[in-house]
Amino acid sequence: MTLDYLDFDYSEDAEGTGTWDAMASVRPERLGALHAEIARVLAWAHRTFAGRQGPCEDGGDWDYDLQAQAEDGTPLRLAYDATRGYLDAEAAPGGGRTTVTLSLSGSAAFGEALREAFDLGDAA
C-alpha cells in the first residue's frame, strides 16, 4: 500500500524504539482522503499487532499519537475508534486548512512490518 498524504520521518531512541512522524496539511476537499489514509494505517497496526498496543517501555509493541489543528492553531477533535476502524474527526471551521500529525512508535518488528506494508523504503 502506498501513502499519498503521510510522509514519515524516522528516528530511534537509545533503547531501539523507532518513531515515525508524519504531518499533513490539507484543504477541506482533501480531508476525507487524508482521514481515510490515517484510518488505513491505524487499522493495519491494530490488526497486524492486535492486542500489543501500548508504550514500548511498558511492554507494548507499538503505540501512536494523533492530533489535528485548524489553520489558526485551534486544536480539533481527532480520535481513532479501533473497534469500528473509524476516525472521529472535526473539520476546521470556515473552510480553512486542517493540519494532522500522526506519530507511531514501536519495536523493530513493528517497524519492519510498517515499512513493508506501506512501502516506506528508507524511512528506516
pLDDT averaged over residues? 91
Helix content: 25-40%
Q: Reading side by side through the largest sheet, how are the strands ordered?
A: 1-2-7-3-4
Uncertain residue ranges:
none
Strand content: 25-35%
Q: What is the number of domains?
A: 1
List the total number of helices: 2
What separation lies between the terminal Cα atoms? 17 Å
Task: From the alpha carbons, calculate the radius of gyration and give it in angstroms.
Answer: 14 Å
Major sheet description? 5 strands, antiparallel
Count of DSSP strands: 7
Shape: globular
Question: What's the helix-strand series?
Answer: EEHEEEEEH
Structural class: alpha+beta
Description:
The structure is a single chain. The protein has one domain (9-117). The protein is built from two helices and seven strands. With 124 residues, it is α+β, with helices and mostly antiparallel strands. Helices cover 25% and strands 33% of the residues. The protein has helices at 28-48, 108-117; strands spanning 9-12, 18-26, 62-70, 75-76, 78-81, 86-89, 98-106. The strands form two sheets. The protein has a five-stranded antiparallel β-sheet. The protein starts with 8 loop residues before the first strand and ends in a 7-residue tail after the last helix.
